[in-house]
Design a protein that fits this description.
Protein name: DegV family protein with EDD domain
Number of strands: 13
GO molecular function, one term: lipid binding
Pfam family, one: DegV
Oligomer: single chain
CATH class of the largest domain: Alpha Beta
CATH architecture of the largest domain: 2-Layer Sandwich
Helix content: 40-55%
Distance between the termini: 24 Å
Keywords: Lipid-binding
Number of helices: 11
Organism: Breznakia blatticola
Order of helices and strands: EHEEEHEHEHEHHEHHEEHEHEHE
Strand content: 15-25%
């Protein structure tokens, strides 16, 4: 069966960059006021961060249905019989449901995997799924392997500006004010146990303590030396802090594979300027 492997810009890739990995992609939407933009087409991560610095309220939404329909129709015309989709997780977006609906409309068999997050692991999974299929693995076998990866995946986020989260409606004004006054730094997590939704893992009093606690969480979840693990440190205009934490990670997990990137906008717009996020998973 001829299967197309599909994702979205939650990977941080443009459509062209996804194609270089042998997969198809559609852009998610980012809006500010009356303006709507296609991620990595009309607007990039630096431009989104500039809007946040201007205290703009930015929202994200799923890829336009028209773009999904356009892609799936072309895939059908090109002889594909099915799509295997690994988009941004259901807990953060309705993209998966939209892809399933459009696939049925155009007559494609639909396979979807919820990675319970987004970003680097989303891109890894869709490319890995394609590789496994080309190696002769069945769909069920591929799903099992992706589930194993998912079981090892965690994303920890440390927002710096609680007032940004208040503006976005993710904290009550009182909680944001008190949090700022008390210098509370929440450590947030997104993973399989949270069903792809942002949840509070812990609360500490300073950014320094938040980073120390994040490292302790990682030590409990990643085997010694980090063998066969991917660790990505990401930031929203906090490069110096991010690089410092990256070096700490390398001391404890010297054998892991590392990435250092800007946090994808679909997460960064919710956490704000100064945020750090750490994503890790076992490469299977």
């Amino acid at each position: 069966m001829k299967i197309a492997f599909v994702t979205d810009s939650g990977t941080g890739w443009s459509v062209k960059e996804a194609a270089a990995h042998g997969v198809y992609s559609v852009p998610l939407q980012i809006s500010e006021g009356n303006h709507a933009y296609l991620e990595n087409e009309d607007i990039n991560v630096d431009q989104v961060n500039e809007l946040m610095e201007q205290k703009k309220v930015i929202k994200t939404s799923l890829a336009p249905l028209g773009r999904i329909e356009e892609l799936f129709t072309k895939l059908k015309d090109d002889g594909y019989e099915a799509v295997f989709c690994v988009p941004i997780c259901k807990g953060l977006s309705g993209t998966m449901d939209a892809m399933e609906m459009v696939a049925k409309q155009v007559g494609l068999i639909f396979y979807g995997f919820d990675n319970h997050v987004t970003a680097v692991v989303e891109g890894y999974m869709v490319v890995r799924a394609k590789e496994l299929y080309e190696q002769g693995k069945t769909i069920d076998e591929i799903m099992d392997i992706l589930n194993e990866i998912c079981d090892t995946t965690n994303t920890l986020i440390i927002p710096d500006d609680l007032q940004h989260m208040r503006r976005g409606g993710r904290l009550t004004p009182l909680a944001a004010t008190l949090g700022g006054f008390l210098k509370i730094k929440p450590i947030l997590q997104i993973n399989k146990s949270t069903k792809g939704k942002v949840d509070v893992k812990d609360k500490v009093r300073t950014m320094s303590k938040a980073l120390d606690e994040t490292l302790e969480i990682m030590k409990k979840e990643i085997p010694a030396l980090g063998e066969q693990y991917s660790i990505t440190v990401t930031h929203v205009k906090a490069e110096e802090l991010g690089r410092k934490f990256l070096e700490q990670c390398k001391e404890y997990f010297p054998n892991a594979h590392y990435n250092f990137i800007k946090l994808v906008s679909v997460v960064g717009v919710h956490t704000g300027i100064g945020s750090l996020a750490i994503q890790y998973f076992k490469e299977l």
